[in-house]
Description:
The structure is a homodimer. By secondary structure, chain A is α/β, with parallel strands linked by helices. Chain A is built from 13 helices and 13 strands.
Amino acid sequence: MFPDTLVHDSKSKILLAVLDGLGDIPGPGGPETPLEAAHTPHLDRLAREGTSGLFTPVAPGITPGSGPGHLALFGYDPATYQVGRGVLSALGIDFRLEPGDVAARFNFCSLDPDGNISDRRAGRLPTETNRRLVEQLRERVKPPSGVSLYWETETEHRGVLVLRGRELCGNLRDTDPQQTGRPALPVTPLDDEARATSSIVQSVLDQAHWTLKGEHPANGLLIRGFATLPRWPNFRERFGMKACAVAKYPMYRGVARLVGMTVARRYDALSEAPALLAEAWASHDFFFLHFKDPDKAGEDGDFERKKKAIASFDLVVPDLLALRPDVFVVTGDHSTPVAMRQHSWHPVPVLLHAPATVRPDQVERFGERPAQQGGLGQRLMYELMALMMAHAGRLAKFGA
Amino acid sequence: MFPDTLVHDSKSKILLAVLDGLGDIPGPGGPETPLEAAHTPHLDRLAREGTSGLFTPVAPGITPGSGPGHLALFGYDPATYQVGRGVLSALGIDFRLEPGDVAARFNFCSLDPDGNISDRRAGRLPTETNRRLVEQLRERVKPPSGVSLYWETETEHRGVLVLRGRELCGNLRDTDPQQTGRPALPVTPLDDEARATSSIVQSVLDQAHWTLKGEHPANGLLIRGFATLPRWPNFRERFGMKACAVAKYPMYRGVARLVGMTVARRYDALSEAPALLAEAWASHDFFFLHFKDPDKAGEDGDFERKKKAIASFDLVVPDLLALRPDVFVVTGDHSTPVAMRQHSWHPVPVLLHAPATVRPDQVERFGERPAQQGGLGQRLMYELMALMMAHAGRLAKFGA
């Protein structure tokens, strides 16, 4: 993005507020998106004083998951910084991954008497049963020498297995054949480096199957998405800023931790977030505030609830401004259109407020259509970091 | 950018007028930028007839120096074509660098009786003293065999040293420790290839220190920013056009020379520039006209003067149009906001006038905010070259 040598120190503070799934398309019957329809007098004022744009999380037409959506916001091009499913699953349950850990998703499954898979999800096991079985696996599966095993329940039939030890390698093929009527695949290394880890994982799975032998319907395990916690340059090294994340949900706390941010205590109501930011204010430079509700309402297809979630964020804006950030950005990690009930590729409106240095545009409100006319133009989301840093006086001149 | 094979010949003429530091943000107390506030009837008419856009000199958030800003205008992506400090300093004093030359900045400094630096700038020496000392260095420092030495005064304590010879290499560490109370660092090669040059430069510096021994306060030299003139594809090879630069100040004449442009005589008043262009018109295809005043006013924080400088450029526009360029572009190399008194990262308005081929937009005036809505969109500055060439009929169809 830019050479490290341009990064220079400053006392300035940057506040990045992320409304999860913010972007949308017009709702059923109406010409407006939830953001355009929401009552947001504070955000509208910031849009008038600041500058707006439409930013694409990954690339045109690409719908991001939560991991890539947030990595882009943190200045890590998600096309370059890819992270495996197992790692994201571990982050999603608040597991504290360490460098070198290998993580994978597992499903409890049902095996017939011949050992063939009869149900890949063991009848969508109740989460409580999952917990009981995970307890048994913890007790009875002996970790191979030099390796620690962490069995964790996710929900229903889903769980996460983490291996911690020296020189483990995550380049392993899934054991889930994605079909019933055949046995699970053996653990197979995808390169030479992964041979030893492959044997370790196979012995773990063999013990797990022995442990689950008498269970019904969950008498087997399928495992996929093996991944190692990547060793990426951390946020502070790359951008010269100590960062603090204020987020309620594990996935976002996890992605923040992945790039080396400090993670503050969980908040319960959004109104508690400004106080958590205030506590960290003096000791950090960059603040990431995550607010999940617009995304949940989008996934539920609930226009009114998404609109209200956005309006409820607007109510805390004065408390956020009271912290006096030099640069205040409000945006989303991706779009979750109500009409689609899922993440989408549509670019996300960005609002940048930085009174000392901003070039205002003609945008009068915060919304998808106004942002199309904004001074920031249409860009890739990972480019936002350099813009925030520039407005915060944290990037030196390039060349003489 | 585009394959060389697309370049084809034409009789068409392109005129690129660069108002240095043109871009701005609204001035103190007003909603308008200097460009928006300036009386520019001719430029406004061209904006109406032509098409506008906002172009980012290097990358979003990156503030360019004059070198990278101009390389982008000349179609050289400044992220790829990087040039060292010593070379830019040499260009800035109108020194005619040749391929293979190694150039570096030096400061006269003060050394205490133990040889430690007591003042890195020798009390900001008067330029006249600098000239006298440089004269002594020219006389008394013997060039090592096969090498020519060029000692040049810049201003105050600053100067430029150029070494010319065979197989010199500029990968040398600065001798300036950036601190007082310690001696200058020895010249040190940063790779094997630079070993021989390192010894040569050390012997030159040893002689220089001997020469300056009795002086006060400038009895030492610190040297930094060693760089070799890069061997880049030249402008004519890349774009198939003979280019002529009309510029008043050394830095811009130098950067034009760096890519192989012919450099016309210096003009004194801007009103002389059209005649200089007219002289070169028949024998060249591409014309770069540089006007420094808006940048100087911006760096001085003088809104009125910047506005007037821009208006004074507007007055010569009829004389420039009288040359009948097929493509006439007016833009800047970067922004120099009055409120910031320095270069900034803000994108620069571009106006492209090409009556035969332009798709007009809804822009009615030349200004930052109108340009946000312009038909050229928001792009990287180095992409402008292909657009100018296309409108000049100088790029063939890509593929059948």
